[in-house]
Design goal:
This protein is α+β, with helices and mostly antiparallel strands. It has 12 helices and 18 strands. The two termini are 22 Å apart.
């Protein structure tokens, strides 16, 4: 049995073991159906804490599992050390260089707020409650995807504690191979204790959501998909078909409604945004209109993703194209009258800047899809084992004529699955990532 007391003595932060009450407090998964129970939990307060933890784990032969916000947890951690990085939270904006230097445990909300004070914005995801590093090492798609590409495209440098127990500066002027791998390579590459990213100049943002009542007409959904085929490259949209239950916890305008929520983001002036959005308002009779000028600090309001932990089941795929037949197929799955146990189906329109091939400069992998598809399962843990996986299999089968064979890193349900890995990175990229992991973590200290 491993004696963790010697590690505890080296730390500024805290260490708890399984024999202590509530030893996973502050290090739980966002998906509450995943219950971690590792041998020990280290809440790192400094980079030195990370370094000492990695060196201890390597010497003792125990694995390390990384935790920031818990959003990326796909399975329970039941061995080794859960290394919680929330204590490494910091943001320093350089407005002249248009960069943000961010601690490895920082959430996007802090970066968004600090950058907005200077008319700048990070290329973040739809939720600002997630961790910066986890989002970026998985590529990262968000409301500025078409105009600004993947979040990882904007990584400038990173400080990384490797499995060898060393601190490495990964950048275009430092360790270039680790820098390449961190931009989309996802797991097993070390602990990022600090990351610097380029910020976008976004003096104004025209964004929000248009809601259409699908029980009144499903045409707005089909017309939106038609519109995306010729959409401006600087406008990013996503469409969510969602059935709201008739419960008091649901806002009254949405209660019991089957709606098409069309999320829109345009990084530019109000007049231009209004003009570009006019065709979207003309898709049909707008039920609710929450589209207009939006403060940069409120970017998360576009999709209003959950901020509190709960049971969740998400599965994703990518699409090569869409058309009227696709609209009909999706509406049959998730539209009015559907009896599938799902909360909704979301299609994101990407492409444009995300399609720029950069395989020599980052490890994002495939960029040959213009849309993504996400299924939000009913939040009933009793359905997670067999029912919802079979429902998603039906969804994939239904959209097969439009589905790409590929995934993007943050869409992987399980990064340990060889089949998913093959769908996420081309063979050459997989081989190169394997070589980087072997060089920087030969003992396989880091486990997904």
């Amino acid at each position: 049995m491993t004696d963790y007391s010697t590690l505890a003595d080296r730390l500024t932060g805290t260490l708890t073991t399984r024999d202590e009450p509530d030893h996973t407090a502050g290090a739980t998964a966002f998906n509450l159906t995943v219950q971690h129970d590792p041998d020990a939990v280290v809440h790192a307060a400094t980079e030195e804490d990370v370094l000492q933890t990695v060196r201890f784990a390597a010497a003792e032969g125990v694995p390390i599992h990384l935790h920031t916000t818990g959003h990326g947890a796909h399975a329970a951690y039941e061995t080794g050390i859960l290394l919680a990085l929330g204590g490494l939270s910091s943001v320093a904006i350089d407005p002249a260089a248009r960069t943000a230097k961010v601690g490895g445990g920082t959430r996007w909300a802090d970066v968004v707020a600090a950058a907005a004070e200077h008319g700048l914005a990070p290329v973040t995801g739809s939720s600002t409650n997630v961790g910066v590093v986890g989002f970026l090492v998985g590529g990262g798609l968000g409301p500025l995807a078409r105009s600004h590409g993947f979040g990882s495209d904007h990584v400038v440098s990173a400080r990384v504690v490797t499995g060898n127990g060393e601190v490495v500066d990964a950048s275009s002027y430092g360790d270039t191979e680790l820098y390449w791998a961190l931009r989309g390579g996802k797991t097993g590459l070390g602990v990022v204790t600090e990351i610097t990213l380029a910020l976008a100049e976004v003096p104004s943002l025209y964004a929000g959501t248009l809601f259409f009542d699908l029980e009144e007409s499903t045409e707005p959904y089909a017309r939106w998909l038609d519109w995306t085929t010729t959409a401006p490259t600087d406008v990013t949209t996503s469409g969510l078909i969602v059935g709201f239950p008739d419960l008091e916890v649901v806002p009254s305008p949405m209660r019991g409604k089957h709606l098409f929520a069309l999320h829109v983001a345009y990084p530019g002036p109000e007049d231009d945004g209004a003009a570009l959005s006019e065709p979207l308002r003309e898709l049909g009779s707008v039920y609710l209109d929450d589209l207009g000028p939006l403060p940069l600090a409120d970017v998360a309001r576009i999709t209003n993703d959950p901020t509190q932990p709960g049971p969740s089941f998400l599965r994703g795929a990518t699409l090569t194209h869409v058309d009227r037949d696709f609209a009909e197929a999706v509406l049959a799955l998730a539209g009015p009258g559907s009896d599938l146990p799902i909360m909704g189906l979301e299609v994101r329109h990407v492409g444009a800047a995300t399609a720029v091939e950069t395989s020599e400069t980052d490890a994002v992998g495939f960029r040959d899809f213009d849309y993504t598809l996400t299924m939000l399962g009913a939040p009933d843990p009793a359905l997670f084992g067999e029912v919802l996986p079979s429902v998603f299999a039906r969804v994939e089968e239904t959209v097969a004529p439009w589905r790409s064979p590929h995934l993007t890193p943050n869409w992987m349900a399980d990064p340990r699955d060889p089949d998913e890995e093959a769908r996420t990175w081309p063979a050459g990229v997989r081989a190169r990532l394997a070589a980087v992991r072997a060089a920087y973590d030969p003992a396989h200290v880091f486990q997904a």
